[in-house]
Amino acid sequence: MPPIIALFLSMSMYLNAIFNTKKMRDVLLFIKNNHNYYANRPEKLILRYYDVQGRKITLYYALYVYTTVVAYITIPAISLLIDFIIPSNHSEEKSFPIELDYGVDTQHYFYYLFIHSYMTIAMIANLIASCDTTYMLYAQHGCALFAIVSYELRTVHILDASSLINLKDHRLFENYKNIELLPEDEKKICTKLFLCIKEYQNAIRYCNLVESLFAKSIFVQLFFNVVCLSIAGVETVMKLGNAADTIRFGSFTFAQVAHIFVLCFPGQRLLNHSEEVYNAACDAMWYIFPKKCHNLYKFLLARTLIFSKITAFKVATMSMETFLAIIQTAMSYFTVLLSTT
């Protein structure tokens, strides 16, 4: 049953990509234009840092997905290989990695159906890994845009801040808190603040586009994940007497938890980076801005109080708080199902 639910989950991800092709193209154009815009600016270092970080995260996640799939499908293959190398006197019914009804004699056509089931599982795993890594990379780019805006807000009063790009040490800004602006520098400060506001609007538009792209799909995925986690947990408990099946269903159960985490964690990071823009706006040296910039700063500060986020069809915000709530809900269903078996 859980593998069938995983099939529907992967189909929902695939259909989301098919029906939102235009939005995906718009997101990719956004990313391309942003890279071109920052290509000759110091902020490209921030963009590059988040790109490398996103590449590592997606690589580790893809390796995890494929490792989990290998763990799930290897045990039936090993038992089949042992029977092939060391034939036994009594014939046992051969098992598939997943239970399916093909409408034919499965033992007679075993090897054909066995290869088909393995290919299907590999395709599903590849689809899930591809869609999830795409989601994580899109959210990661949104984090990069907010990080750039935060950096520019903290250095808006510094005419040459190219040497202050350090994502791990914000103490570098301390030496520039008590500087005095010359009259000829006031116009440059206003221009920097105006550009910063434009880049903030660009980041908000990008995050709204990403949210609209994944909101419905995430809602459907979470529904299937909760159902699959509850049922897989029950099957794991029921198979405790069989070590091989316990490992298979246990790894599958943990994979559901990991997938829910993957849906929530990028949303939490995006929310944190959006909140960081507000903190950066509060840290800005607004009191040394020219008076004509004060109204711009007030509107910016008011807007930063509205945080960008990714939601599950406007029902729940993707965050670690939502992750814990979903796990608790799934455990409640698991307890109920276990008590009825």
TrEMBL record:
GO MF annotations in UniProt: odorant binding; olfactory receptor activity
A single GO BP: signal transduction
Parts of the chain that traverse the membrane: 63-88, 109-129, 213-234, 246-265
InterPro entries (UniProt xref): 7tm6_olfct_rcpt
Location within or outside the cell: Cell membrane
Pfam families: 7tm_6
Gene Ontology CC: plasma membrane
Region forming the signal peptide: 1-17
Membrane topology: Multi-pass membrane protein
Superkingdom, natural source: Eukaryota
Keyword vocabulary terms for this entry: Cell membrane, Membrane, Olfaction, Receptor, Sensory transduction, Signal, Transducer, Transmembrane, Transmembrane helix
Main localization (coarse): membrane
Coiled-coil intervals: none
Protein family (similarity comment): Belongs to the insect chemoreceptor superfamily. Heteromeric odorant receptor channel (TC 1.A.69) family.
Name of the protein described by the UniProt record: Odorant receptor
The gene coding this protein: LOC100749294
